[in-house]
Structures are given as C-alpha cells and as structure tokens.
Amino acid sequence: MEEKLIKKLMASMKCEECGQNYESGNIDVIGHREDMWFMRVQCTACHTQCLVAAVVKEGKVPEGTNGFTGAEIEEYRGKTIEIDDVLDMHNFLTDFKGDFSRLFGQEKLR
C-alpha cells in the first residue's frame, strides 16, 4: 500500500480533541512493516499531536471490526499521552520481534 493512500485514509479521521479532520500535510509516516503503519499526526485546528499505530490491510473488512464503542471512546476521551508513555513505547518497539497483527487482534492486552 502506498504512503499517499495511508495519508488519505488518515485524513478521513477526526481529531479526538476538537473533531476537525486531519490534513494530509500534517500527517508524517514514520514507517511501516507489512500491514502495520506508524504515523505522527497534528491537528491544524487545535495543534494536538498524536502518535498512531494502525494495521491497514487491503481487501474486505472482517465483521466485528467497526471500531470503538461509544463507552470505549468516552473512557479514553481527554486522556493525554505523556512523555513516559512515548518512551515506554519506544523501548517496547526497540526489542519487539513479535507479530503486531496478532498482538492488536487480541481482545484484551495483558
């Protein structure tokens, strides 16, 4: 899949803070491995920055993967990512040799 298409898909997403759609110019693809893409996005309206990890596969979307429920969205609304969270993820990814598709496909992470 092309980076241009990934940016277009991400531009259809809305900022969690203000609801504004992201713009492709403010989406930086950090890298990808197979179907797992890593991006840094910044909202042009409220300037919120996020790190995004997404599994993007071509083809038919399987049933039951329609995203978060309203309760899940409310549970995480307003929570911020701290520098320690980013460093923890960096340390995890540095040594990670596993399967992201399987890891993120689990209902609950341990």
Nearest-integer average pLDDT: 79
N-to-C series of helices and strands: HEEEHHH
Instruction: Give the distance, in angstroms, between the N- and C-terminal Cα atoms.
Output: 30 Å
How much beta, percentage-wise?
A: 15-25%
Helix content: 25-40%
**What is the radius of gyration?**
15 Å
Count of alpha and pi helical runs = 4
The total count of strands amounts to: 3
Oligomer: single chain
Q: Taking strands numbered 1, 2, ... along the chain, how are they ordered across the largest sheet? A: 1-2-3
List the domain count as a whole number: 1
Indicate the low-confidence ranges by residue numbers: none
Largest sheet descriptor: 3 strands, antiparallel
Q: SS-based structural class?
A: alpha+beta
How would you describe the shape? globular
